[in-house]
C-alpha cells in the first residue's frame, strides 16, 4: 500500500469513475513528484490494482474526459464519523492526451 502525498501536492476537484458500469463520483486528483493520486470523497468498495480510473470534469452524463489511468495501489482510510475514503495511486494510460496533470511513476 502507498500513503497519500504529503505537503506540496497539487490538487484538483474532479469526478472519477472506477468501473464502466459505475457512475462518476466526486474525487480529488493530486499530483506530486511524478505520482498521481485520486481520493474518492465518498469511498468505494472493492477497488483493486489493475482497474481503470477515468477522470471527468463533472458528474454530467456527457462530461468532458480529463484523463485516466490504471490503479497501481489502493489505501483505505477512516475519517472521524467512520466514513471511508479511498485513495488510489494511478499509473497513466499509454498515448494519454495533454489534459492529464502529471504522469505517475511505477512502484
Task: Lay out the secondary structure.
Elements: E1 10-17, E2 25-32, E3 35-40, E4 52-56, E5 65-78, E6 84-92
Antiparallel strand pairs: 1-2, 1-4, 2-3, 3-6, 4-5, 5-6
What does this protein look like?
The protein is mainly beta and 107 residues long. It has a single domain, classed as Elongation Factor Tu (Ef-tu), domain 3 (Beta Barrel), CATH 2.40.30. Helices cover 0% and strands 47% of the residues. The protein is built from no helices and six strands. Strands 1-2-3-6-5-4 form a six-stranded antiparallel β-barrel. A hairpin with an 8-residue loop joins strand 4 (52-56) and strand 5.
Query: What's the alpha carbon Rg, rounded to whole Å?
Result: 13 Å
Task: Classify the fold: give the CATH topology.
Answer: Elongation Factor Tu (Ef-tu), domain 3
What structural category do the secondary elements indicate? mainly beta
Q: How many E-type strands?
A: 6
**Largest sheet: spatial strand order:** 1-2-3-6-5-4
Instruction: Spell the H/E element sequence.
Output: EEEEEE
* Whole-number total of structural domains: 1
The fraction of residues assigned to DSSP E strands is: over 45%
Mean of pLDDT:
74
C-alpha end-to-end distance: 10 Å
Helical content (DSSP H or I, runs of 4+): under 10%
As an assembly, this protein is: single chain
Indicate the overall shape. globular
Low-confidence spans: 78-83, 95-107
Number of helices in the DSSP assignment: 0
Q: In the CATH hierarchy, what is the architecture at level 2? A: Beta Barrel
Largest sheet: 6 strands, antiparallel, barrel
The first-level CATH class is given as Mainly Beta
